[in-house]
Amino acid sequence: MKRENQKVILVTGKGGVGKSAVAASIALIEAKQGKRVLLAELGERGFFRHVFPGAGDVRPVEVTAGVDAVRWEPEACLREYLLHYLKVEKLVDLFFSNRVMRSFVGAAPGLRELALLGKITSGPRGVGPDLPYDVVVVDAYATGHFRALCMAPVGMAAAIRVGPMADQSRMMTELLKNSKNTKMVIVTLPEELPMNEADELCQFVNQELSISPAIVINRNLPMPLSKQELDSVQQKLVGRDGSMDWLQIFANYMSEQGGRQEAADQRVRGWGVQPIHLPFYFTADWPTLLREMSQDLGHKWQVG
Predict the structure, then answer these.
(1) pLDDT tens-digit profile of 139-169?
(2) Is residue 59 part of a domain?
(3) Residue 257 located in a structural domain
């Protein structure tokens, strides 16, 4: 069944910046708005099994009201795609049981990414089994692999000019460029390396896909004092006895962190994007973290 109005939200960013938590929070926000949501993660190893009881299966499993979670593997998605066109399961089984074909699947440039992206965009394209959801939130690959995921249909369409795979590849690319269906979210931290990767990825999305992503700057520390006030505190502590050293260290750290956060904010604004800021959550409890993050993000989030 073709779902022309289905939203696909792709969440990416440098590893370790909190993209999985942001993806899960977006899913919870959309579900609270009355939408039926699929939270999908990519690859052989699932992360959400550590967060939601029962998550991590290759079949959708309800993890909370309005939200199903699923894990999509490249080979399973490719098998599903071939079965959709060949219609004969035995032929598909023969294909995957053949050693040469299995080697081809493993080595063919972009084929695994193409299979995953085909599954991600299958609803609006009306290809394969029905995805009965209003919104599909994808905890996608980290930045480098994410670029390969997005460019896979472009490369395939250039290599194969005619036929179903060429047609579907072009449709995938068109869908990625269509802001009506697709939204991209880049998660970063107010630190140099994550910001550099976010900068490169934002440029890639702008140039190659002609869309403007949302930028989430995660783990911002609250700043009760301005940088000038913190610098003043440091100066007053100079020459005190050694017991005050820790106050100087803390004031210095907060001053530097405030500078990093301000620089990150200005840098994102320089990309022509209004950044979304999330605080540092001082908890290791996932239900608490997701509840607080979804509340904070919910005030600033819109699919639009």
Answers:
(1) 999 988 999 999 999 888 888 878 877 888 8
(2) yes
(3) no
